[in-house]
Amino acid sequence: MATVIQHQLVHLLKTHFGYDSFLPNQLAIIEDVLNQRDVLAIMPTGGGKSLCFQLPALAMNGTTVVVSPLIALMKDQVDALCANGIAAAYYNSSQSPEIQQEIFGQLKKGELKLFYVAPESLGVFASLFKEINMGLFAIDEAHCISSWGHDFRPAYTQLNSLKEQFPNVPVIALTATADRTTQDDILEQLSLPKAKRHLASFNRPNLYLEVRPAQNRIKQIIEFIEARPDESGIIYCLSRKNTEKIAERLQDYGFIAKAYHAGMAPGNRAKTQEDFINDRVPIIVATIAFGMGIDKSNVRWVIHYNLPKNLEGYYQEIGRGGRDGLPAHTLLFYSFGDVAQLRKFISESDNAEVEYAKLQRMQQFAEALSCRRIALLNYFGEHLTESCGHCDMCNRPPKYFDATVLTQKICSAVVRLKEKEAMGTVIDVLRGAQNAQVYDKGLQHIKTYGAVKDISWQDLQQYMIQLLNQGVLDINFKESARIGLTPLAKQVLFEGKKVQLAVLEKEKPKVKRTVKRSAEKTGLFEKLRILRQEIAKEQGVPAYVVFGDASLKDMETKLPKTEAEFMEVSGVGQSKLERYAAIFLKTIAEHQVSLKPKVPTHEQSYQLFLEGLSISEIAKKRELKEDTIYAHLQRMHSEGEAINLSEFITTEEIDQVRDAQKQLVDAEGLKPYHEFFEEKMPYWKIRLALYMCSLYP
Ligand code: ADP
Ligand code: MG
Ligand code: ZN
């Protein structure tokens, strides 16, 4: 195979996919593949992995076979390829025999550039692949082959003989799994000892990272969604029951939201997923069962209602936001209740020690008081040197105050409670609560009862969490979450050690949402979205197969007027140009016109008059009566334009009308004049003469 040089690849990229440049690592990976090397590509979700085998498929002879774990995934990618005018098909066991035969035929004739198949069905093609010209094997979601990975799929293990059967066909394995053990295992399972590894940065700068304490979660979520009308988002939570409960609450508030979890009937689940992908349902409340194999590129926000059990899971889930590279907001709710619950789950697992450690890292991230992205990427072995400027900590760095006295009071309460009470009771005692819990145990008599009455319950809880994080307090999860002291606490109590705590952030003022909502509705983006939706519906494909949000945004910015300008839009290649340029250009042009202040009709006539057109020419052009054009010019004159009206009328005619006026004192309108002149003077002239008389009585 001839080496394809770089500018040819860039040309293919634009013509077929509509992009001007490669994303990080794409070019290097593609070049390796084209040089017949086996490759392991590790790129974050949304990093553009598909292109790493789709573009080589176009540049190579023969067919590229893509192994993909889910039918939905295959279908969407094939739809997207076909929309770009690329010959692609997928096979699965549920297709009709006729369709399956057709696919066999296409493969035999070498008509397909890309062929997608699930690992379960590979066997069906074993002999056919030997007969035809094979270009490349692409193993998507390759971590499924590893039992170390989080989505192990037994059928993937069939792939381990692939290299043996097709020693001369290069293999590219792709995954977003960052974990090194899994990476090694993938290559071992696939027997690709010499594969070149490409590890892309896991930084996803377009994801905004935010963590909030889990108080009034539902209320916070509703405000969050209300501020983002028409945006797609996912809310993850721990239990199936909760997904349903939250979805219902949101529906009560008028949002279109659906629950999704593994306990639902398969048909129902598939439908919910389809509805989400096709923008019919913008909000999904799901367990972590949701998301694998969803290529929806315009998820604009991801909320974690509960704390995930580790950072891998968290990162993968927030990674489903903003795959189109546009900003997406991620929000994690952090509660100690969740930590306690997760610890309980973990204590029942075989791998408890490792999982505890991972949970602890998750907690540390949630409690970070400096740049979240630094903390997150550290975990994945990437070390940012500068704060990201795009997370809650960078945006509103915490301020600190000297909390030594407060800490002493808290610690002393813990001592007097003999380190036997949970956080809630410690807070009650400190605030002097008068509830049964306190009275039953006689806690109103201890010395620190009511020592910090001036701090609210919630705030005090937040301060205690900070003290836990700083290692002043300790929490014993195994014994009903009792709060205890650490050696550090003793230094604070007895050795004058100082403590700094972060000042708590007060709730932000509410966004004025009604204004934003209506402003957005009139925007071009909204119109393009609607158009895209209509086209997608007609063609029976997800909306983003027509165009991604990024392309629509680019149209909104570039406002293309010609096909050449349309071709400049990101995501517009030759095929989409041919299919969609006309209709999108029309919508954009109409929008432009609707924005232009409408020129009043009399001014339009005057404009033509200034351009030198005669009255009859203007009338013809504007499809109006000449009478109307005269009236327009007269009106312009009355508005102060220097029009020589005496061009149209003689002084005798004006005098005649003046005389008529004296006789027709009570006349209303122009008709009496018209009759007076025995219909020999046209209406416009009478009107004009009366006007002149009023100017020069
Ligand atoms: P992954 O499989 O790594 O999660 P995808 O292959 O689904 O990511 O790509 C994510 C998004 O990025 C898609 O919308 C895709 O069209 C887009 N994309 C891929 N390559 C480029 C590029 N070179 N320029 C702009 N967008 C790209
Ligand atoms: Mg992918
Ligand atoms: Zn930051």
Description:
48% of the residues lie in helices and 11% in strands. By secondary structure, it is α/β, with parallel strands linked by helices. The radius of gyration is 36 Å and the shape is flat. Helix 23 crosses helix 27 (574-595). The N and C termini lie far apart (94 Å). A 7-stranded parallel β-sheet has the order 3-4-2-5-6-1-7, with helices on both faces. The protein has 33 helices and 17 strands. Mean pLDDT is 90; it is low at 509-519. The structure holds adenosine-5'-diphosphate, magnesium ion and zinc ion.
Please supply descriptive tags for the structure shown above.
697 residues, alpha/beta, seven-stranded parallel β-sheet, six-stranded parallel β-sheet, binds adenosine-5'-diphosphate, binds magnesium ion
Class of secondary structure makeup? alpha/beta
Write down the Rg.
36 Å
Heterogens = adenosine-5'-diphosphate, magnesium ion, zinc ion
Helix count from the secondary structure assignment: 33
The helical percent reads 40-55%
Determine the N-to-C terminus distance: 94 Å
How many β-strands, per DSSP? 17
Strand order of the largest sheet: 3-4-2-5-6-1-7
Q: Uncertain runs with pLDDT below 50, 5 residues or more?
A: 509-519
Mass-distribution shape: flat
